[in-house]
Amino acid sequence: MSPSRILKTKLQAPRLRSPFFPRPGIKGSLEQIEDYALILIQAGPGYGKTTLLTEFCNGTSWPCLWYRLQEDDSDWKTFLRHLNHLLARQVPEITDYENMDYQEHLEYLINDLFEHLSRDMVLILDNYQNVAGESRINEIVSRLVEIGPQRCTW
Q1: pLDDT in tens, 128-150
Q2: Domain segments of the chain as ranges
Q3: Angle in degrees, CA 20, 26, 27, rounded to 5
Q4: Which pLDDT band, with edges at 50, 70 and 90, does 1 fall under?
Q5: Closest by Cα among 123, 127, 125 to 149
Q6: Could you give the CA distance from residue 51 to residue 65 in angstroms, rounded to a whole number?
Q7: In this structure, are residues 65 and 123 in contact, taking their beta carbons and an 8 Å threshold?
Q8: Residue 124: which H helix or E strand, with range?
Q9: What is the DSSP string of 57-70?
Q10: For 48-106, what is each residue's pLDDT tens digit?
Q11: DSSP reduced 3-state for 125
């Protein structure tokens, strides 16, 4: 995978900035994360979704992988390239699948996760609304949730 084609700052969790207002009730709900394949947090801008997830990631033993989605990630090749790079942090066996169509790419990715992922993890797709209008991205995420390894929470 060509590192020059990866914008690494998209794959970095934001820092908690002070002051922030802890939300123990909502954060406590996230503690049950292992019971779900997908958790959707939806609210308007400025309601603290990113802060809540950052606080959760800072306080959990689960590895949290962060992908801050922007409008240019609505291209499925860009999306999968960044997703592969991010997931390879936990599963180094994930390789470059770029010469495949998105369905084949996704099958290889899911198989590699299934075979090599050694512990539970959380993948955060922050600002999903920036790509939600792209049907292939929605299909990719749906497939990951439906048939992805049980060790993953998306």
Answers
A1: 999 989 899 999 999 999 988 88
A2: 36-153
A3: 70
A4: very low
A5: 123
A6: 15
A7: yes
A8: strand 121-126
A9: HHT-SS-EEEEE--
A10: 888 888 888 888 888 899 999 999 999 999 999 999 999 999 999 998 787 888 899 99
A11: strand
Sign of the CA dihedral running 9, 48, 78, 57: positive
Q: Which helix or strand (DSSP H or E) is residue 81 part of? A: helix 76-87
Compute the distance between CA of residue 1 and CA of residue 37 in angstroms, rounded to an integer.
27
| 141 and 37 Cβ atoms separated by less than 8 Å | no
Is the CB of residue 97 less than 8 Å from the CB of residue 128?
A: no
Can you list the pairs that 45-53 forms with residues at least 24 positions away whose Cβ atoms lie under 8 Å? Answer: 48/20, 48/21, 48/23, 49/126, 50/14, 50/126, 51/16, 51/20, 52/23, 52/26, 52/27, 53/124, 53/126
- The residue assigned the tokens 């939300």 is 23
- Cβ-Cβ contacts under 8 Å for 41 (sequence gap 6 or more): 49, 52, 53
